[in-house]
Automatic annotation (TrEMBL):
Biological function: Reversible hydration of carbon dioxide.
Record has Metal-binding as a keyword: yes
Textual note on the cofactor: Binds 1 zinc ion per subunit.
Family of this protein: Belongs to the beta-class carbonic anhydrase family.
Sequence positions that bind Zn(2+): C38, D40, H90, C93
Protein name: Carbonic anhydrase
Annotated InterPro entries: Carbonic_anhydrase, Carbonic_anhydrase_sf
Any one GO MF annotation of this record: zinc ion binding
Catalysed reactions, semicolon-separated: hydrogencarbonate + H(+) = CO2 + H2O
Coiled coil: none
Enzyme Commission code(s) on record: 4.2.1.1
Length: 170
């Protein structure tokens, strides 16, 4: 039995599939690009950055972490031929300025635990300076030991109040 939300998803999917026109689309991104952005529900990369299905690989994770996205970004550049990576963080991110300990405390409370090495070792990857973090994440991807030198990695900040995108690392 489906939950109301699952039923909504299935109904929307049936409508989507009834007009689906992308059969046979290949896996490599047509624009040879990867977007690394936050999983925040206020972001809509397809609409905000003007691409269509099949044009870019989009990697979304908490905080638009280059460290967290490295595996997928490296696979897309090595195996699927992407030549460009845009790391896009955003204003008012839920991980901005939050100490990891606060997140760990919430997790412990939710799990009903007073002590847990698993929670203690869980990497939250919070950050305190949006532009500095963007620079650090770009450098991490650029200097990863498996990174291809021909792949361009840039850093951006999306303003969640205006929708505007600003390049901060060329």
């Amino acid at each position: 039995m489906s939950t109301p939300f699952e039923s909504q998803v299935l109904e929307a999917n049936a409508k989507y599939a009834s007009t689906y026109k992308h059969s046979g689309l290949e896996c490599p991104p047509l624009k040879k690009a990867v977007l690394v952005t936050c999983m925040d529900c206020r972001l809509d990369p397809k609409s905000a950055y003007g691409f269509d299905l099949g044009e870019v690989t989009t990697i979304r994770n908490a905080g638009a972490s280059g460290r967290d996205a490295a595996r997928s970004a490296l696979l897309t550049t090595h195996v699927l031929g992407a030549e460009e990576v845009l790391l896009i963080k955003h204003t008012r991110c839920g991980l901005l300025g939050v100490p990891s300990e606060v997140v760990h405390d919430i997790m412990m409370k939710n799990l009903g635990l007073t002590d847990s090495k698993d929670v203690d070792n869980f990497e939250v990857l919070t950050f305190h300076d949006l532009e500095a973090s963007t620079r650090e994440e770009v450098e991490y991807l650029r200097n990863h030991p498996l990174a291809l030198s021909k792949v361009r990695v840039t850093g951006w900040i999306h303003d969640t109040d205006t929708g505007l995108l600003k390049k901060v690392v060329a």
